[in-house]
Description:
Layout: E1 5-8, E2 11-16, E3 23-27, H1 53-61, E4 76-80, E5 101-105, E6 122-126, H2 150-168, E7 175-182, E8 194-200, H3 205-216, H4 220-230, E9 234-238, E10 241-246, E11 253-259, H5 271-288, E12 293-300, E13 303-311, E14 322-326, H6 329-342
Parallel strand pairs: 3-14
Antiparallel strand pairs: 1-2, 2-3, 4-5, 5-6, 6-8, 7-8, 7-12, 9-10, 10-11, 11-13, 12-13
Helix pairs in contact: 2-5
Bound molecules: zinc ion (ZN) (2 copies).
One zinc ion binds near residues 63, 65 and 192.
Amino acid sequence: MAIEYEIRDGALVWIKNPVTGVVSYVVDLSGKSFAFTLSAHEHPGPEAPPLSDEAVRHATSVCPFCPGNENQTTAELFRLAREEVSGWTGDPSQDGAEWVIRVINNLFPRIPSELTGGRNESYIVIEDPRHFIDRPRSVGDLLFTGILGEEHFARLIATDARVMRRAMENQQVRSAIVRKNQGRESGASQPHPHQQIIGSPEPLPAIQAEARAERENPNLWNEMIELFERLGLIIDSTDGVVTYASPIGAFPRSYDVVMPEFRGLLTDLEPARVREFAHALYRILRILGPLPLDYEIHQGEGLPLHAHINARLFPYSNVAGTLNIPNTLLERAAAIRKALARG
Ligand SMILES: [Zn+2]
Ligand SMILES: [Zn+2]
């Protein structure tokens, strides 16, 4: 089945998500006031006094993901030392960490371990030893992914592949995804920057739904990319990686990073291509900055390798299977294109 949508006078009016059936209506939200809009601006500005040393000490002493508290987590699976992560943007004199990336099991497996041969296949990848940004003004001034260097982020995604390889050694694991929540408003349970990796005995439901849609329309992804190209929503298309502002995301501000020609797992991708995929994802995360967001990397079941990024600027607004997309979607895609071109 082809993608269903309607264009009037050259502008998209509505489009149906071919996987979920949710209909996005493109609307003018310029006059609407969002009393509950989420943004980094709720945090005090740079003129506010810095967070006291005592408050910093308290927050980091109770955080199990902070350096010095390694014994508060489940057993470490492996770590990447500083010399293994080029382009780390932290100040080596400022903290006593001997690691930049650290991998542990999630204390609470997302999928009960009895379903994966008695082995916990939920993982946490701690992205950086830093808890806060430099000179935090509030306990909400947490380090965010956009602050990591581009090379550091590429190492992070390569680390995810390494963790997935480990999970896949378990014969009971058939599928794995990466999930990141940034900011409390996105559902993160720990403030310290980290990703989750979940190994599952079955393709996860979101992947199954996408695979089902793909079976109904084997040309689905190419059709979507062609349509988004026509609508001016493509942000970048380099080295076989396409990034677009999605009018059919889970939230009104969603972006996808897709490798349309690569229908395998992150673990099958050669290192140079993992970097290309990571770089495309990183560029969007860098532009979104400290905004609450989530992203998920989807793979397997014949799907092109892809990531969904949801910025949480607007509160969730899926009502009975409908979503309102601001008509500034196009301008935003163009603004991001410009920002990327500036580097
Ligand atoms: Zn921490
Ligand atoms: Zn997906």
